[in-house]
Every structure is written in C-alpha cells, then in structure tokens.
Amino acid sequence: MTSLEHLVGRRYGPIELEADGSRVAAFVAATGDDPERWAGHAPPLFANAALFAAAPLFLEDPEVVPFTRSLIHSEQRFEWDRSLPRGESLEVSGVVESVRARGALHLVGFALEAGDWLRGRSMFLLSDQPAAAAADSAEPGVTDRAEVGETSLVALPTAGQSLTPVGVSASRLDLVHYAAASGDFNPIHWDHAAAREAGLEGTIVHGLLMAAWFGRVACRHSVGVDPLRSLRVRFRSPLRPAASALVTGEVGVVGDSTAELTLALAVAGTTIATGSARVTR
Length: 281
Prior knowledge:
The protein has about 280 residues and is an alpha+beta fold. It has one domain: Hotdog Thioesterase (Thiol Ester Dehydrase, Chain A), CATH 3.10.129.10. The protein has 5 helices and 12 strands. The chain has a 10-stranded antiparallel sheet with strand order 1-5-6-7-3-9-12-11-10-8, with helices on one face.
C-alpha cells in the first residue's frame, strides 16, 4: 500500500507573504473584525493567510494529490511572538512534521513558520479513498446569513466566569470573499458539486474562518494590536453557510500578563468546534 510516511521532513517554501494594506483590509472585512482596530496592523488570525501561502504547496505536491480525495483539517494551532504591521513582508514555509498511517487514512502534522511573527501546526487527515456520502442538501441563498453579534472591546471577566456569547454566521458570498482574502480556494466552500463529491451535503464554511471568529471573540478581551499569544482549534463537524452559530467561552487561569480562555462554537446546541486561547493583559 502506498504511504506518505517518506514525506516527513519535506519542506515547502519559502514563499513571500506581504501584509499588504488592501489584503489585510479585505481579510478584516471577510472575518467581520474591527477595521479601526486593525488600521495599522494585521489581526492575529491573518495567520490563516500565512498558512494558505504554504499549505497549498504541500496539498498540490504530486505525491500528495492522490491522497486528497478525502481531506479533513481536524486541528489548528497558532502561536504569536509579536504583532504584524501592515506592509511588512515575511518568508513563510511549511514542513511535514509527522505522518501516521492508519489503513487508508494518513494523519499528517504540518508545521508552519512565518519569520519571527508566527508559528503554527495543522493536522490534516488524508485518504485516497472517497468519504462516505452525506444526504444532498439545497444551498441557501447567496447572501443569506443569520444574525451576527458585536465583538467590540469588553473587560475580561474574572476566572471561572463565562464570556458573553457572540452570534456568528457566513453567507455563501461571505465565503467567496474570505477565500479571496485568505488564499483558501478549496471548492468545497463555494461549489456544490465539489462539496458533494467530497461527501458533504453541500458547501461548508472554512474551518479557519471559524478559527478567525474564535480569534475575534478572544481579542475583544485584550486591548492593543498584540492581543493573542496562542490559539488552538479542533474542528468536529462542518458548518453550513447561513447557519446560526454561537461562540461561547469561559475564563480559565488569569496571570499577571496573560489569561487562558476556553471557547466553543455550536449550532442549535450541537458543538461544531472547540478551542483554547491565551490572551495578553
């Protein structure tokens, strides 16, 4: 049986990523973030654009392509050392850090490096076998979207207290805008036929857009342009466009300079994604 284990250590890049003002502005708009707060810097989750500068080089590797017949992004971690001013350019690269084969399924750890700004690690589940097909579901209207909540700055609650829930949602048009801003053009997020071929009931929201929503909620509890030290997200189930989702959270350990948050995104009481964040104080 063909395996991907020989790819461990293979590096992709470097490739240049510029925090171009227009692209950062498009990313802020596509994720529903605050344009005034990020007038001079990229928001931390612009990290998504860094990942999708490097990850396609791996996913489009001729040795990897046969294993993308079924592709799941199951977990994402990011760590930041500083803020990223608009206009700065960075070299971004990725490396296959680990591969575990379980029959036809491969669990691939992909490490990301973006200068002295960012480090990341993705867990991809790849297989050369098709995913089980879900029932077909009609697509919502192009601009249909549920109510979206505010994420303006608020005081951090004390340890053990809950964060104020925030409603989130994305229309199909929003997903196209996010794809352009992030570089994640996987057709399962905008093409019904491609989503069905991947075993889905229809198009789905980008997992990293959900991560950006987590980032927005976490960042509202920290002032300045360097509000996040780390974020970890686990993707449990797909989210459909126009669905009404809710981000909730709780404050964990609060230290002198950082605070720990736990986060969850749910639809009608069903958890879609979970996360944890360390915010600056």
